[in-house]
Automatic annotation (TrEMBL):
It holds the Pfam family NAD_binding_10. InterPro entries: NAD(P)-bd_dom (IPR016040), NAD(P)-bd_dom_sf (IPR036291), NmrA-type_oxidoreductase (IPR052718). It comes from the Bacteria. Gene3D superfamilies: NAD(P)-binding Rossmann-like Domain, UDP-galactose 4-epimerase, domain 1. Residues 10-188 form the NAD(P)-binding domain. This is NAD(P)-dependent oxidoreductase.
Length: 290
């Protein structure tokens, strides 16, 4: 298996760069880093151009590849574009002879999930399953790093606005998700498997606020608002409508308990316990107080 060739898509992105950081410690296989713009890749590995909006680039990108890590793209502004990109990548991978796809998905993406981009993940999972290829689906929970979009300002004002109404999230750090991805790509645990990647404990906004105060010494209270008021606040802060809609849909999903599941899957893949949220905040203290 060490002679296999592995390819990581989206390798210049935040998750992709972290996967590249960890993959060498997991395998002696040949590793290829792929990106729309390979010039953005600063890596010791071979690089290739792979643009999912230009399917003609994909046969060359995927040539000779045995296992592929398909990192979900950031094409969220145009409904349906991301799913179309993923479907093009899956079709090209199968045509190129790729044997196994590892995909970064979302917990419970089936119909009924309230997150606006869940259908992209469900459609991609179905395309992979129906391709006949072996697969590993990594259903990554909400990244702990996502809280850094709101917490610095919330700490400054002492108030953190949310419409989650006590709903909990099984936060996972991006670093741990990357290590799990690298492990799954290097050594697939089964021909066909699905893992839900979470931290060890589900936390509400109030739980997180208490940890923030513990780490920073700054008081932080949670203010519950309606979805409409939450979205209005995002728009007032200058976020595009589609981003405000997306984040508001995530609040609704959290409120409904759709991101509250906790599993030991990440520990199974990484071989160690996931980072605690307290430790994440301690590491991110500088960013929190910026």
């Amino acid at each position: 298996m060490s002679q296999d060739t592995l390819l990581i898509t989206g390798a210049s992105g935040q998750l992709g760069q972290l996967v590249l950081k960890h993959i060498a410690s997991k395998t002696g296989a040949k590793v290829i880093a792929a990106s729309r713009d390979p010039s953005k890749l600063n890596t010791k590995f071979e690089t290739r151009a792979a643009d999912f909006d230009k399917p003609e680039t994909l046969p060359t990108a995927f040539a000779g590849v045995d296992r592929l890590l398909l990192i979900s793209t950031d094409a969220l502004a145009v409904p349906g574009q991301r799913l179309k990109q993923h479907q093009a990548a899956i079709a090209a991978a199968k045509a190129a002879g790729v044997k196994h796809i590892v995909y970064t998905s979302l917990p419970n993406p089936e119909p009924g999930n309230l997150i606006s981009f869940a259908p992209d993940h469900y459609g991609t999972e179905q395309a992979i399953i129906n391709s006949g290829l072996d697969y590993t689906l990594l259903r990554n929970n909400w990244y702990a790093e996502n809280t850094l979009m709101a917490l610095p300002h919330a700490i400054q004002t002492g108030q953190w606005y949310t419409s989650t109404n006590g709903g909990k999230i099984g936060y996972i750090t991006r670093e741990d998700a990357a290590l799990a991805s690298a492990s799954a790509l290097a050594n697939p645990p089964a021909p066909k498997a699905t893992f839900t990647i979470t931290g060890a404990k589900a936390l509400s906004h109030a739980d997180v606020a208490a940890l923030v105060t513990e780490v920073t010494g700054k008081p932080l209270s949670v203010v519950d608002v309606s979805d409409a008021d939450f979205k209005a606040g995002l728009i007032a802060a200058g976020l595009p409508d589609f981003v405000a809609d997306m984040l508001t849909s995530a609040e609704a999903a959290i409120r409904a308990g759709q991101l509250s599941a906790v599993t030991t899957d990440v520990q199974t893949l990484m071989g160690k316990a996931p980072t605690t949220f307290h430790d994440f905040l301690t590491t991110a203290k500088g960013a929190l107080l910026a």
